[in-house]
Amino acid sequence: MVEPWDDFRRFEEMMNRMFENFGGRPSSRRLLPSGEGSAIVAAGRREPFIDVIENDKEIIATAEMPGLEKQDIKINVTEDMLEISAETKHEEKKEEKGYIYRERRSGSYYRAISLPSPVDPDTSKASYENGVLEIKMPKTEVKKKTPLKIE
Description:
This protein is mostly beta strands. The chain has a single domain (6-138), classed as Immunoglobulin-like, CATH 2.60.40.790. It has 1 helix and 9 strands, in the order αβββββββββ. The chain has one helix at residues 6-21; strands spanning 39-42, 45-48, 50-54, 58-64, 73-77, 81-96, 99-114, 125-129, 132-138. A 4-stranded antiparallel sheet has the order 3-4-9-8, with no helix packed on it. A 3-stranded antiparallel sheet has the order 5-6-7, with no helix packed on it. A hairpin with a 3-residue loop joins strand 3 (50-54) and strand 4 (58-64). The chain starts with 5 loop residues before the first helix and ends in a 13-residue tail after the last strand.
């Protein structure tokens, strides 16, 4: 079912990606209500809604990814980028007196976002519970700028 805000959400995501490409920081604030949908569907795959919170010590990303098993989710973290992907396949079959019911579903999730501060990928941790993926990424110290003298 198409929600009334789906077109606006797609537009918002497109604008966010455009500003990120111009070197801006990703916004952790959503302009539109999330409604019942948990992802924007683009090119046959879902883009999960992600909230990003930054505090003094870490960056926490929370993504809505219902209907998955944790082993189906792949996460890649670099110093400045978070990438989440998943594939799901589900088949259900019921047989009753001359009636066979079979349902197949498959889908994929993909989302890559720029992080607002450098993080340590080696000490980052992820958990998945009740369809919500949470990734905690400790921030790394920003190296001091060293002035360079022209010779």
